[in-house]
User: What shape does this take?
Amino acid sequence: MKWLKIILFLLPLLLAFSDLEAQQRFPKPEFHTKYTQPTPTTPEPRGVGMEFVDVLVLLVVLSLTSWFAIKKRSRNGILLLTIFSAIYFGFYRNGCICSVGSIQNVALAFADPKYVISLYALLFFLLPLIFCLFFGRVFCGAACPLGAIQDLLIYKPITIPAWLRKTLGFIPYLYLGLAVLYAATGTEFIICRYDPFIGIYRMNGPHLMIYLGIAFLLMGLFIARPYCRFFCPYGAILNVFSRFSRRHLSVFPTKCIQCKLCTTACPFEAIDFPDEEKSKPDTKSNTRRFILYMALIPVLMLAGAWIGSKSHVFLSKAHPDVYLAELLISHPELKTDSKNIDIQTFLASGKSLETLVEEAQIIRDKFYTGSWILGAFLGLVIGLMAMNQVIFRRREDYQANKGNCYGCARCLDYCPVE
Amino acid sequence: MNRKLIISILIVLAAVIVVLIVTDVMNSRPDKRPDNPYEYTVDQFTSVDTALVKYTETIDFTFGDLDLRGIAFANNRLYLVEDNYLVVVSPEGEKLAKLDLPESPRCVTASSNGIYIGFRNYIGQYDLDGRLVKNWEPLNDTTVLTSLAVTDSLLFAADAGNRRVLRYKTNGTLSGSFTGKRDSADLHGFIIPSPYFDLVVNSDGELWVVNPGKHAFENYTFDGQLRGFWENAAMTIDGFSGCCNPAQMAVLPDGSFVTAEKGMVRIKIHKASGEVLAVVAPPEKFKGETYAPDLAVSPSGDIYTLDYERKMIRVFQLKK
Amino acid sequence: MNRKTFINNSGRLILLGGLVYLTGSIFFKRKVSASGKYVWQIDPFKCMQCGRCATQCVRDISAVKCVHAYQLCGYCDLCGGYFKPNTHKLNTGAESQLCPTGALKRKFVEEPFFEYKIDEKLCNACGKCVKGCGSFGNGSLQLQIRHNLCQNCNECSIARMCPSNAISRVPIEAAYQIKGDFKNPAVTNPK
Assistant: This one.
């Protein structure tokens, strides 16, 4: 990148000579001895242009995983790809930028006209989603570095009762909603902040990151993929997308012989059991319940929107400007606190409290819009999750649940069907 | 491992995760953030013994939003240069005249013969009504004029860029310059790290030049021979702080110097022999500011200071 | 089964349409940078030397280092950024130095000028020298993010805590903002 060096060198010179004002530089002392003034160094960042190699690698890994999961049906292939992703996307690229975090970049780009999103982030967001629509959650299976490290450290996975799984399954949607809200209002990237595994991959990091990482990994010994199942916001999106995928990993190649061996293989309880009775259950009451729940959805959405709009003040406090404005209004005596760096910097900046309050009000208004949308979204999610319980799906075989199955292919080796 | 144990471990871990996240959210609020462990403070030097403060601030006048550049007191008038104007003001603050200037002025001085305005690299000579008499010969590109002082027949200009003092005849001819070397073997004379270089001619006809890098007051003959000097580099009240102070100075009718420092802004009075006599304005008067105010002194001993950051003239008078 | 495949296909189509809409609106209504990186950098004129560059970076030793804009330096004997305030002994003893790690090195050039150079391996980005130089000197020392050390996180942890919002994402062509082009009128036109 020689041209980069030349530009970085020439730019200050160009700036210096382009402006008459700049010619009035205050002259240095004249040195009589042979002294040459050093110039400040400008070391280049690593891997300029390498991001597109990463996109290419992601594409290749996603394609290979799809092929191994669906066509070749090889657990070993997927295992190798998982290890590769942990090494390449995890230890080598340090897990940043990842597809999970790219949600925030996209949300901010959508909401803020001034934000410039890099094509690389956008591709990291889109590619796994597109593959998901055609092949299922192959990203989770072998490409995601966060999933890879959890997957490799499964030791003695326990089974979680269905009601608990379903309840905890709400958390990713909540996390997704909050992440999008906070990213779109320009407050913070909370996914990045509470990413447990980046500290492990960098082998370096602040205390919070390391402790979170260790806690999740320890959990991961006994609950398979805790972050993926109960936290990951991108997983929430992939879950929905995967239900409409064109093809998906299938446990059996031709037909199911009801041996149940696959259910012992899957540590994630992602295999659906067929219905016990041959006869259909009471369709009338089920249909009634279905219609009831469907009618309930708009009610839930409205309730959610109402709760969301009521809580927008509380949520907006996460934004430092809003918090500072509130603090200075409610505790004006803090203006004289010389120890508080943030308050002192604000007072020294020359900005008046009125301007800060105006800016905070604009942000709070954004939160108002975002919060009721968030509330409505969560209401919809609860409604749909409830509806899902009553939809009768005739299942005759043991098959991977399209939404929850990551395509890790552990079950394939257990299925005795050729 | 039995199931109960595993479940209890998992519950503990889940609780740990929740606690970690919540405490992190709480601790990053702007009023809970930790203090700076690497704080640089000079608070011990900013407080001044009130017994030393012998002046009070009496009047202030503001002039809107223009960038004030220099101030001089002569002929019972205050001459201000700002942006592209020369403004003549009465000592009580009444604006008497406002005249256009061709470019940004840097410094000004006046006598009963006329007004002299220093631009970046040349001096403009104006009559007392503000009409241009003539622009003197421009100097080289590295010239940065920072101060002027005039006697009946001579005008001295401080050129910070070339580290020299120029001597002009009041008709505009350049008659000499000197670089202030204390010893002919010295490599450098005036040490000027930043564009602050001030000089005065006192009522006894002595030329005093500040050597900012050495924190020194140097007394020169009109052709540049060093008669004597005193210097005091210190953060305490008796000396001059930082790298290049005092940035501005003026002389009182009795020969003592009023000095203004930049960085830790304070205005003091020093005897002509060096000891500090009194404090005019301690650092609290200039809280949040870092530029040294320009100074001008009236014949009755009132000190007019040009506060750049607040864009006003602040007058200090001796306490009764 | 036809109903199932119909729902499947239409669902997929809707979701694909959603992605296309999202991508399209970002491409056409917002700025997408195809030419590579954006990096984090500190604006030296906004920096308040709060010390958080040293403590908040995700790396153990911060990716921020003090950089010397030699063009602005006065080469003073009594350097505001090197010596503790009111030091009388102008020597290189540790008790007179501001720098807690001894990263700022003082070298004699000629009487009375000294060159001050930073040893980046020792600098911890505490900003003491920057504050000293800025208040009592020319302000030639400044904190800058060094891109060979910076991880280029999606959200800079220091930027999140910076009290004056001095850290922002800049295109890689403007990766370093070092004082010295004298565009700041405070240097050329101090009054």
Observations:
- Chain B has a mean pLDDT of 89.
- Chain B is about 10% helix and 40% strand.
